Amino acid sequence: MITASPGARITSPALADWRQLWRDAITDGRELLDLLQLGHLADRLPAEDAGFALRVPRGFAARMRQGDARDPLLLQVLPQLAELDRVPGFVEDAVGDMASRETQGVLHKYQGRALLIASGSCAINCRYCFRRHFPYGEEMAAAGQWRQALEYVRQDTSITELILSGGDPLSLATSKLEELSRGLMNLPHVTRLRIHTRLPVVLPERIDGPFVEWLHSLAHQKVVVLHANHANEFDAEVDAACARLREAGATLLNQSVLLRGINDDARTLTTLSERLFAAGVLPYYLHQLDRVQGAAHFEVDDARAQSLVTSMRSQLPGYLVPKLVREVGGDPSKRPL
Q1: What distance in Å separates the CA atoms of residue 240 and residue 237, rounded to the nearest whole number?
Q2: What is the per-residue DSSP string for 193-242?
Q3: Residue 275: enclosing H or E segment and its boundaries?
Q4: How many helices (H) and strands (E) does the chain have?
Q5: Contacts by 27-35 with C-beta closer than 8 Å and gap 24+?
Q6: In angstroms, what CA-CA distances link 13 with 236, 238, 251?
Q7: N or C: which end of the chain has fewer CB within 10 A?
């Protein structure tokens, strides 16, 4: 890992304004299909995006293959009629988030770690998202300069790691993240900050100079957990964003979701692990699908999932084989499979 020396000033190349790129995202399924020369498939789109808005940054769409209706990046974001099916066992709160709510925007599931719902916004809306039905309007830890969330963490000195999730925490302005870090200065028992984000992959311009300087300034141990499911999600811009994160002192991990028709074969998963490591990112978790309403068509059965990981172990060094897990509401940790 490349890290900067203490006190060193991190510099980043000039990047396009990520906020403008966010605003320019594709939000119409017909436009996305037309861009990919797949306009003839528009009549297969569900009305009203199946109740979950389409959003795709144009840079991410540019990595999709023209004319390929089975492109693995396209299938992650394109609304499907199958999302309207009601399948037994698939529910709105798939992992028991609301049962672990402690105060506004704070989930406390596991010993020593608290999770803040930092934002309800994402640069990209993945169709399998386990929080696609989450009541973000009522659960925002960043509200009121983070006071309520930080007060909860202050009172529980067993919490040593704070996890920023969402939505995507990097959808917040860097100035809003600075509010959080100022509050953390009064919480000496919190020694590690973990950020779960998809933005370095889908909108790498977010990792700009001000953000990198903020991250570098933190006294905490810093872990950034990316979310990529397929090697095609990486390009030179994503590699550069990962390099900037490492230079700011962050350890980079990745978690993927096993998705039928997208990455449910050993070669695809092996290539993803190799591509992650080439970008300086260590594979961490391979999640079995959270059984959220609207995502049943992505599910891969456990026996096949375990077979895929066994195949990966025969082809990769152990440190490139992610842990196959499932999140079960009420469990004290992720459940290994």
Answers
A1: 5
A2: EEEE-SHHHH-GGGS-HHHHHHHHH--SEEEEEEE--SGGG--HHHHHHH
A3: helix 266-278
A4: 11, 10
A5: 27/53, 27/54, 27/55, 27/56, 28/54, 29/54, 29/78, 29/79, 32/56, 32/61, 32/74, 32/77, 32/78, 33/78, 35/61
A6: 13, 13, 21
A7: N
The whole-angstrom separation of Cα 140 and Cα 159 is 19
Region of residue 104 (phi > 0: left; psi between -120 and 50: alpha; otherwise: beta): beta
Residue 179: other Cβ atoms inside 10 A:
17
Which helix (H) or strand (E) segment holds residue 182: the answer is helix 174-184
Measured CA to CA, the distance from residue 93 to residue 183 in angstroms comes to 30
- Amino acid identity of 89? G
C-alpha Rg value of the chain to the nearest Å: 19
pTM over 0.90: yes
- pLDDT tens for the 337 residues of the chain, in order: 334 444 444 455 678 899 999 999 999 999 999 999 999 999 999 999 999 999 999 999 999 999 999 999 999 999 999 999 999 999 999 999 999 999 999 999 999 999 999 999 999 999 999 999 998 888 889 988 899 999 999 999 999 999 999 999 999 999 999 999 999 999 999 999 999 999 999 999 999 999 999 999 999 999 999 999 999 999 999 999 999 999 999 999 999 999 999 999 999 999 999 999 999 999 999 999 999 999 999 999 999 999 999 999 999 999 999 999 999 999 999 999 9
DSSP reduced 3-state for 186: coil
Contact call for residues 263 and 230 (beta carbons, < 8 A): yes
Which SS3 state, helix, strand or coil, does residue 151 take? helix
Burial grade of 315 (CB within 10 A; 0-12, 13-18, 19 or more): middle
Residue of 18, 15, 17, 43 lying closest to 29 (CA atoms): 43
Tell me which DSSP letter residue 1 carries: -
Indicate the DSSP class of residue 337.
-
**Cα–Cα distance measured from residue 166 to residue 300, given in angstroms and rounded to the nearest whole number:** 25
Q: How far is it, in rounded angstroms, from Cα 275 to Cα 79?
A: 27
